[in-house]
């Protein structure tokens, strides 16, 4: 499998494995998770999307998600690996890359290194800018009762979440460190969930980060084709070849 030239003129080796990290209150069946899987699998790329809600949504924490994804990574055979993270999943993906950078700096082996990252509307300041509509009094009430009811959009149900989600996130700071892994970020100017200005501050001065600001909201649903085109080059596949592969697959399936 050959790579294709990135938009910056460099050559990108093709990833062999990709793990998609869905967002808060989402699932492996999210629109963007299925979109990436559909586009990449014709190239033989191993696409996985662990259910970060498991084993219990109410006990979700950043530390638990990191451990779950690292366990998934440990099962992979050799080959370049990319993490794609959406919203809270983008925060988790970046923290995994930070952990690997720290391990390398300490001379420790990294068994399954992350080769590159694609972050979609990433909540990079998670746990450091409040939580949704909660003010200081609301956060204190959540801490005291250990319960806050949120909408789980994938289930279309209101579900409780424990305060450990917010408390545990204080251990992690995306702004405190830089990583060498090439990172491609897409963010919408009209995002009212994750502050676009925060993402711009994050990208500024980080040479490994390329930020694409889009006329879109938090879901980025109006720009999926553009996101795919740029991500395909970044991941070492060519969007035009991907379209041809899908056409061939449809024609083949139509014969049956």
Q: How is this fold's topology laid out?
A:
Elements: E1 4-5, E2 11-12, E3 17-21, H1 31-40, E4 46-48, H2 62-74, E5 81-86, H3 88-105, E6 114-120, H4 136-145, E7 148-152, E8 157-161, H5 164-169, E9 183-188, H6 196-203, E10 209-214, H7 224-235, H8 239-254
Parallel strand pairs: 3-4, 3-5, 5-6, 6-9, 9-10
Antiparallel strand pairs: 1-2, 7-8
Helix pairs in contact: 2-3
Tell me the domain tally.
1
Spatial shape: globular
SSE ordering: EEEHEHEHEHEEHEHEHH
Mind telling me the CATH class? Answer: Alpha Beta
So how many helices?
A: 8
Overall mean pLDDT stands at 90
Uncertain runs are 6-11, 248-256
Cα radius of gyration in angstroms: 18 Å
**Biggest sheet statistics:** 6 strands, parallel
Strand order of the largest sheet: 4-3-5-6-9-10
Could you list some keywords that capture this structure?
alpha/beta; 256 residues; two-stranded antiparallel ribbon; disordered C terminus; 8 helices; Rossmann fold; six-stranded parallel sheet
Please characterize this protein's 3D structure:
This protein has 256 residues and is an alpha/beta fold. The chain has a single domain, classed as Alpha/Beta hydrolase fold, catalytic domain (Rossmann fold, 3-Layer(aba) Sandwich). 36% of the residues lie in helices and 18% in strands. The chain has a six-stranded parallel beta sheet, sandwiched between helices. A two-stranded antiparallel sheet has the order 1-2. Strands 7-8 form a two-stranded antiparallel sheet. Strand 1 and strand 2 form a beta hairpin. The relative contact order is 0.17. The C terminus is likely disordered.
């Amino acid at each position: 499998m050959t790579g294709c030239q990135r938009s910056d003129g460099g050559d990108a080796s093709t990833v062999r494995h990709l793990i998609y990290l869905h967002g808060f209150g989402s699932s492996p069946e999210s629109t963007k998770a299925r979109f990436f899987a559909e586009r990449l699998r014709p190239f033989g790329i191993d696409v996985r999307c662990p259910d970060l809600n498991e084993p219990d949504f109410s006990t979700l924490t950043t530390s638990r998600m990191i451990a779950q994804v690292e366990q998934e990574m440990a099962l992979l055979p050799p080959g370049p690996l990319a993490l794609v993270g959406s919203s809270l999943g983008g925060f988790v993906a970046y923290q995994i890359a930070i952990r690997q950078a720290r391990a390398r700096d300490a001379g420790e082996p990294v068994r399954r290194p992350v080769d590159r990252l694609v972050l979609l509307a990433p909540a990079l300041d998670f746990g450091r800018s409040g939580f949704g509509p909660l003010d200081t009094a609301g956060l204190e009430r959540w801490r005291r009762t250990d319960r806050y009811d949120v909408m789980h959009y994938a289930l279309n149900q209101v579900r409780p979440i424990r305060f450990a989600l917010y408390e545990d996130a204080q251990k992690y700071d995306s702004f405190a460190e830089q990583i060498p892994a090439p990172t491609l970020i897409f963010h919408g100017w009209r995002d009212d969930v994750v502050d676009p200005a925060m993402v711009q501050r994050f990208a500024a001065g980080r040479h490994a980060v390329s930020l694409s600001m889009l006329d879109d909201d938090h879901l980025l649903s109006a720009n999926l084709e553009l996101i795919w085109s740029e991500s395909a080059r970044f991941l070492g596949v060519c969007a035009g070849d991907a379209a041809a592969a899908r056409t061939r697959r449809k024609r083949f399936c139509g014969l049956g």
